[in-house]
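Hey, I'm writing a tutorial for new members on how sequence and structure tokens pair up, and I'd like a real worked example in the thread rather than a made-up one. If someone can provide the structure for the chain below, I'll link this post from the tutorial.
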Amino acid sequence: MHTTAHSQIHSRYLWLTDGLTAMWPSLPFMSLGVWWAWTSLTFSGSLWLSDNEINGAWLSNLFTVSTLSFAVVFLLAAFLAQRGHLQQPMSNKLVMGSGIIAGIGCLLIILAGPYYLAQVVSNTYIFFYAGAVLSGVGTSLVSLKCGILYGMLPPRRALAYAALSLLVCAFIYFAVFAMPKWTPIEHGPTFANILVFCLLPIVAALLACIPVPKNSNANPEVLTYEANVHKLPGSFAKFVVFSFFLCFIVTMIRSAVVTTHALATTVEGNNIIMLLRVVLAFAFILYSVRSDAHGISLGKLCSLVAVYSAIIIALIAALGGINNAWSVVVYFAASLFEFLMWCLLAFVVAQKRVAPITVFGFGRGFFMLGCGLGWMVGSIVEPFIIEDSYAIVVYIILAGIMLLLALGLFSERDFERLFSPVSEDELSLEDLFDIEARDAAEAEAKRAEKRGRFSRAIENISQTYALSSRESDTLRCLAMGYGSERMAETMGVKVNTARAHTHNVYVKLGVHSREELMLLVDNVVAEL
């Protein structure tokens, strides 16, 4: 009995998801956008902080603990995959369980606030830090599932879906600010914000578990790729180190402002960053649909991000020190690099045929490690960074490191080496970008060939059965499934005239129904 009920629920689930993905094939891949929305809202503090917070100290604590927990899980997953101890692909039960764990962690963070458990428990720190760890661990596995999904896609499609995810992220982000402001407890977070904070990780997990539709151009064989990091070129390790240090420096500067400023200042800065990400999304959507999309080097963009960051940091030193506006300008570089890195990791999976858990585990793991450590260091050494006597020296050193990253550690040449084919069966990045275009051209050629065979079949039947010109047109319309009204409209005659022509065609062909007529046409097409 239980098995039958479970089977019925599973069938209804598949029916529902098939219907959704038929209307929106990219739906499973939008789990990335939902997860990005959760991180953007969570680390702005707008969802969970109470209105008595005078600065971003608790926000810094959450970011540091949650991000470092996230990084540890990613790196651990990559190492376990290397040793064959981690199931590939990840089961949906594990992903859904992770989303629920993250939701529980978010609830603990809310309860640890000053107006909930603090009223009955003297020390709520343990709830806060336990929630931070759970949120990082839970969202990490959901994010890893997103990496597996994007690893299935050809590069052009991965780029387009990642850009769409940015728009989904921005929509959710700004929609939250328009929600009702009713609060369960005065001065605490609103009820709507609490729901969004706790449910977004679960929604992301649900979307990530939706079966990928067959018409999404996804490659299910990616799930069986070899989890051997030694198949990756040495430039991949340089890219990972590059991402670690870039994020470390940029995040350290941002945290120095967030830790000491009021929550409203942080939210204002995040709103500006989100608007810039919308512009970024549209730019990459346009880029992804260009026929020569591979003509612009994403590796060059990564290097330009580092050079841009170095210039801004140098300007900070020259113009009197850090403030919220400068930190937003610098931190946007991290947002741009995060997007580029996500796409590049998906490209590596597609070309090198290495398991997504390995590629995203190491790549994204060190990226998040750099973010977490950078935020921790920035919040700790903030007085030394802000103080005038140390500021110029600190910023000049950071700007110099950025230039070394861009020009020495991972240059455009290293990017070319990363995606250079090393075997005959390995396609170049340019060829991978052209796969969908070639597939579309081949599909159109097949459709054209089929149309040509169909037209020849109509001509052959018309000649064989001595059909008139009007009867031949009627035969074509009937074979295409047209009803009497559409047939009359197409041929420019009255409905009764179309029906008379249909009767004559049936008599001459010796058929008695539309099905028999279409079967006759199909047989002639098959013989051509």
